[in-house]
Design brief:
Elements (H helix, E strand, L loop, with lengths): L9 H6 L4 H30 L9 H36 L7 H20 L26 H29 L12 H32 L13 H18 L2 H15 L6 H15 L14 H29 L8 H23 L2 H7 L3 H31 L5 H27 L16 H31 L37 H11 L16
Helix pairs in contact: 2-3, 2-4, 2-15, 3-4, 3-5, 3-13, 4-5, 5-6, 6-7, 6-8, 6-9, 8-10, 8-11, 8-13, 9-10, 10-11, 11-13, 11-14, 13-14, 14-15
The structure holds protoporphyrin IX containing FE and copper (II) ion.
Length: 549
């Protein structure tokens, strides 16, 4: 167009972009790379644990692997990949042309990437080896003089800033930029998930930012916040860490609940059951989630009434969570189920997340937790919620939205092969770990004696991990292949309900030439109905392709 500077193309267009879709894609590419790194670290640990008294990996390296793996999966994969999907889809789903602050958005991405690179740079000197929780005094300079801990502090500062700026951006966008007619009760449930994820990030991150800053000054500038000898208290670390750390688990699941709430109705050919209950329960989980942090500290010296409070507040979260599960099942009930890959992953998500939820409620009973803390039961629990839950949900979202992002369909057969390998591999890896935990196998150990009876289950777990990894590779292959040879998707391949399916796939730079007026929580149904009433052929629903794309 005359008068406008030429649009940059090639690499430069990515480096300088402020388009929420490109930023979203960069988030997704970068986080999947980190996911691969975290996965390789996991496989190395599982190889070491395949046999008793194995000498493949030495104890220092094992502890570094645990730390890098946990940190990577949480701070460099699950939280930011959700920001990636949020970036791509929030403006499209609410009928906006970009995020509220596009440049700030780009800054969020680059902060994340550099945070990750700085953290991984520690591999070339001494990686941290404290576990992802970095408990003081273990992480203090007396016990951990290596700069690996400082690299982690850097990571937390940079990715924390990235997340806070991103969260402010989501809040501003969702509050102010919704299409005409999209009241709160017509907002897609994924948008509810991202909105509440953002509020939680803003509330929780300052606590860990403060904690790591105190750790930094303890380590280098002679303060003693966590040092008993100087009048400090290591429990302060645990409170600050978990005041962030528990909300963090909801940060990692609420947007995924949102994805599942989008997918299940589309593939059940029914409106979602109990829209308001799902939205309200999201808010309730976030509120209650701020009140339960000390259930990670049941073995610290704490009065029984306080333990009881944290036990009961943790139980309470099962109520709004149960509401969601029932709503999803009620949505599927008597629906005309369309068993496509996104639905496979969504149903797998529900089954596995319920198991993780139940082992969570069990661990919230504090006398039970006294037995289970720091055993493999907890390792099983976190993986059922984080992998069986969050990651399966993210894969559901990937299969669901890939056609919109790339303009191509993923291959169904490869998708189903990937699902079954992942489902089998995941449960093989982690189901037996409940039993290992109940038999007393501690977490974060690099090896174990042969006489304990832990050998067979550990071997099963390791074989399962490799099957799981193979399943993940099939999806990555499927994605790369489909970008080239996948069937053309068209605007709305799933007959879906929300506004992102109104625009071409992939959407033009300005998203919408005309922004439709919203009349219900399912705008695409309204549009299809209007088109049918006007007697035009189905499939001519969409706006014309924008010029220049
Ligand atoms: C290929 C799949 C995976 C395998 C085989 C795997 C395996 C492991 C292993 C062996 C440990 C160390 C247990 C210990 O020694 O205490 C671990 C810890 C952990 N994993 Fe995974 N994992 C996988 C995926 C994930 C994912 C997707 C997430 C999160 C989204 C995750 C989060 C964590 C966390 C938070 C820890 C605790 C780290 C710590 O104790 O500091 N893992 N995992
Ligand atoms: Cu918790």
């Amino acid at each position: 167009m005359r008068g406008l500077p030429d649009r940059k193309t090639g690499w430069l267009s990515w480096l300088s972009t402020t388009d929420h879709k490109k930023i979203g894609l960069m988030y997704i590419y970068a986080t999947f790379l980190f996911f691969m790194l975290g996965g390789v670290e996991a496989l190395m640990m599982r190889l070491q644990l395949a046999q008793s008294q194995n000498t493949l990996i030495n104890p220092q390296t094992y502890e570094a692997l645990v730390t890098m793996h946990g940190t990577t999966m949480i701070f460099l994969f699950v939280v930011p990949v959700l920001a990636g999907f949020g970036n791509y889809f929030v403006p499209l789903m609410i009928g906006a042309r970009d995020m509220a602050f596009p440049r700030l958005n780009a800054l969020s991405f680059w902060l994340l990437l550099f945070g990750g690179i700085l953290f991984y740079a520690s591999v070339f000197f001494t990686p941290p080896n404290t576990g992802w929780t970095f408990y003081a005094p273990l992480s203090d300079s007396a016990f951990n003089p290596s700069n690996g801990v400082d690299a982690w502090i850097f990571l937390i500062h940079l990715t924390g800033l990235s997340s806070i700026l991103g969260a402010i951006n989501f809040v501003a966008t969702i509050h102010n930029m919704r299409a005409k007619g999209m009241g709160w009760a017509r907002m897609p449930l994924f948008i509810w998930g991202i909105l509440i994820y953002s509020y939680l990030l803003i509330l929780a991150l300052p606590s860990i930012a403060a904690a790591v800053t105190m750790l930094l000054t303890d380590r280098h500038f002679g303060t003693g916040f966590f040092d008993v000898a100087q009048g400090g208290d290591p429990l302060l670390w645990q409170h600050l860490f978990w005041f962030f750390g528990h909300p963090e688990v909801y940060i990692m699941i609420l947007p995924v609940f949102g994805m599942i709430s989008e997918i299940i109705p589309v593939f059940s050919r029914k409106p979602v059951f109990g829209y308001k209950a799902i939205a309200a329960s999201t808010a309730a989980i976030a509120f209650l989630g701020m009140l339960v942090w000390a259930h990670h500290m049941f073995t610290t010296p704490t009065p029984i009434v306080v333990l009881a409070f944290f036990m009961l507040s943790s139980f309470a979260i099962a109520v709004p969570t149960g509401i969601k599960i029932f709503n999803w099942i009620a949505t599927m009930w008597r629906g005309a189920l369309v068993l496509k890959v996104p639905m496979y992953f969504a149903v797998g998500f529900i089954a596995q997340f319920v198991i993780g939820g139940i082992s969570g409620v069990m661990s919230a009973v504090f006398p039970v937790d006294w037995q289970l803390q720091d055993t493999y039961f907890i390792v099983a629990h976190i993986h059922y919620v984080l992998f069986g839950g969050s990651v399966f949900g993210i894969f559901a979202g990937l299969y669901y939205w890939f056609p919109k992002m790339s303009g191509r369909m993923m291959n169904e057969t490869l998708g189903k092969v990937s699902f079954w390998l992942m489902f089998l591999g995941f449960n093989m890896t982690f189901l037996v770990q409940h039993s290992l935990g109940l038999q007393g196998m501690p977490r974060r150990i690099y090896t174990y004696q042969s006489g304990y009876g832990w050998d067979v289950e550990n071997l099963i777990s390791t074989i399962g991990a490799f099957i799981l990894a193979a399943g993940i590779l099939v999806t990555l292959f499927n994605a790369v292949r489909s970008v080239k040879v996948g069937k053309k998707a068209g605007n709305d391949p799933w007959n879906a309900n929300t506004l992102e399916w109104f625009v071409p796939s992939p959407p033009p730079e300005n998203n919408f030439d005309v922004i439709p007026r919203i009349r219900s929580a399912e705008p695409m149904k309204d549009i299809r109905r209007e088109v049918a009433a006007a007697g035009r052929p189905a499939g001519s629903v969409a706006q014309p392709v924008a010029p220049g794309t």
